[in-house]
Amino acid sequence: MLGIALKMLLGDRVKYLGLIFGIAFATLLMTQQVSIFVGLLTWGANPVLDVREAHVWAMDPRVRQADEGLAISDAELYRVRSVEGVEWAVPYFRGTTTVKTAEGRVNALTLIGVDNASLVGLPPENRAAAAEAIRGRNAMVLDETLVGRIWSDGRDPVGEIVEINDNRVTIAATTDALPTFAGLPVGYMKFTDAITITPPERNKLSFVLVHARDGVAPAELARRIEAQTGLKARTREDFARAGVNFIVTNTGIPASFGIAIGLGVVVAVVITALTLAMFIAENLKSFGALKAIGVTNGQILGMVLAQSLLVGITGFGLGIGGTAAFLAGAETDPNLDGFLLHWQVIVGALVAILSIVVASALLSVRRVLKLDAAVVFRG
Amino acid sequence: MTYAAVARQVVMEFANGEDRTRVLHGVDLALPLGRMSFLVGPSGSGKTTLLSILSGTLTPTGGEVEVMGERLDRMQPADLVRFRRRRIGFVFQQYNLLAALSAAENAAVPLIADGVAWGTAVRRAREVLARLGLAGHEHKLPRQLSGGQQQRVAIARALVHEPALVVCDEPTAALDAQSGRAVMDLLDAASDDASRAVLVVTHDDRIYRYADQIFAIEDGRLVDADASHLPHALPEHGTNAP
């Protein structure tokens, strides 16, 4: 009977294609929006995740996420180093400034100052060259994915002189940092250079990056640092998660994406339920004839489920393909860097779509299952 | 005489809220094998209800219905569905062919529903279609066939599983006179099979001449329409076909 079911479905091309494209559109909407949402949330974690060597971040107790740099005293660095279980601890500056090009263009910039000796905090991409280049005085390593925002003519920025707070800074190399939620170009300098060219403040130390000694759990070390120094200390994973949570709780992004994803679900439900209901209604007499002939309710249920699953899986495949194509195209755009189609999104969307089509099919088929076979004789 | 179907004191009532409407008042009827029987009467007389009961698509509220020795009124619903699928053929007024299936596939539906492999079922359906004069039309969709041809496909569907009883609901109502005659010729030939009875419900008096016996029904009761064709006495239990 499955063959009959599929022929019935394929024979009604308008509804078949309507169902397929409706489900494909809903899948595209849901998975694309979820992927972008997840990507944006990941951006919130990236400032922390990009610093791979640090097990623990120590900071002012009022700091909630990496872009909130409330400076602490330089003395805190030495207090942290004195905590039992610390292998090493280095200073880390993170602040926002303005860069001015030779042509007079200005652009906001996230300036990061990494430890002069270890260069902990410099991204791994092109690290050797960057590490060599950054050692020069007032030398900056610039995130190449965002170079285009400063120089839109596509030039190689290495060797360019820019001005930051009336200081001449040389772009000495480029690197590829993970994109951040703030969306500003990121420049790396030695810690001492970074704190020198930024406006004077009593304290300039944004974070202390800590590496735990072998055998010491980062969570335990963070607890010890907090107890001994009064600073806030978070493991790399916890602080990265704090960046994500900050976006979730302090922006309208979850609500905005939630609405778009919800619309995808509504589109899927409405199109699937209505079209299946119309398909069933238009074929009610045929189903009645089948029941009279001796087709069981179980067979009819199997037929309708097979029809629903076919359109569900086909539409889902097209929708996922559309999302994959979109994200593949987005890879070349630095503004959309880091948006991935995670397998959890695929599985979640598949479960959602199949649940919708199966539920719609079961609701629609109730009419047929309750249908009296003798109805086929009644005019 | 051996009977394909026997109805004894069949009563049918429909509930309408607290009211109950009786549409059949103790109907007795027997359909002999190898014969074509007609059930005639005005609209609302109970023809369709009686046809539904005899074909096992409706269970009577009283009385007995036996088809090929099996008591339909006592069957469980699942057994009744299986019985219909194997022992009863259906011809509907509007053909009720599936628009997306070819003529051969439509004719093969009862076999496919009974678990016969698609290829085998369609091959057997093609043979029946050929016998009914539709050779060369097997691959056509219903919309590519005339009304008469569609009804012939429906007849093929009713005969493909070699049922003991074929019930036809107004089989010529949607056809012109010539197509109607062709359809009736086929049903007449089908009823010549000694292992089969054909019951036709019709308003169309042009085709009465095909009837071996005619039952007339009015207000839910059989009336003597053509005494020469009516059985003088109903068969006892167990005398109808096994």
Features:
heterodimer, A: alpha+beta, 2 domains, 12 helices, B: alpha/beta, Rossmann fold, 6-stranded mixed β-sheet, disordered C terminus
SSE layout:
The complex is a heterodimer of chains A (379) and B (242).
Chain A: H1 2-11, H2 13-49, E1 56-59, H3 75-81, E2 86-100, E3 106-114, H4 127-133, E4 139-143, H5 147-150, E5 161-164, E6 167-175, E7 186-190, H6 191-197, E8 207-212, H7 218-229, E9 232-235, H8 236-250, H9 253-282, H10 284-293, H11 297-330, H12 343-370
Parallel strand pairs in A: 3-7, 4-6
Antiparallel strand pairs in A: 1-8, 1-9, 2-3, 2-5, 2-8, 4-7, 5-6
Chain B: E1 3-16, E2 19-32, E3 36-40, H1 47-54, E4 62-67, E5 70-71, H2 77-87, E6 88-91, H3 103-107, H4 109-113, H5 118-131, H6 147-159, E7 165-169, H7 177-191, E8 197-202, E9 213-218, E10 221-223
Helix pairs in contact in B: 6-7
- According to CATH, what is the class of chain B? Alpha Beta
Poorly predicted regions of chain A: none
Written as H for each helix and E for each strand, in order along the chain, the element string of chain B is EEEHEEHEHHHHEHEEE
Tell me, rounded to a whole number, the average pLDDT of chain B.
84
Overall domain count of chain A: 2
Short note summarizing the structure:
Chain A has 379 residues and is an alpha+beta fold. Chain A has 12 helices and 9 strands.
Structure overview:
The complex is a heterodimer of chains A (379) and B (242). Chain A is α+β, with helices and mostly antiparallel strands and 379 residues long. Chain A has two domains: 2-44 and 252-377, no CATH class; 61-230, no CATH class. In chain A, strands 2-3-7-4-6-5 form a six-stranded mixed beta barrel. Helices cover 53% and strands 16% of the residues of chain A. Chain B is of the alpha/beta class and 242 residues long. Chain B has one domain (3-223): P-loop containing nucleotide triphosphate hydrolases (Rossmann fold). In chain B, 29% of the residues lie in helices and 27% in strands. Chain B is built from seven helices and ten strands. Chain B has helices at residues 47-54, 77-87, 103-107, 109-113, 118-131, 147-159, 177-191; strands at 3-16, 19-32, 36-40, 62-67, 70-71, 88-91, 165-169, 197-202, 213-218, 221-223. In chain B, the strands form two sheets. Chain B has a six-stranded mixed sheet, with helices on both faces. Chain B has a four-stranded antiparallel sheet with strand order 2-1-4-5, with helices on one face. In chain B, helix 6 runs parallel beside helix 7 (177-191). Chain B starts with a strand and ends in a 19-residue tail after the last strand. Classes of the chains: A alpha+beta (379), B alpha/beta (242). The interface between A and B is medium-sized, with 27 and 32 residues.
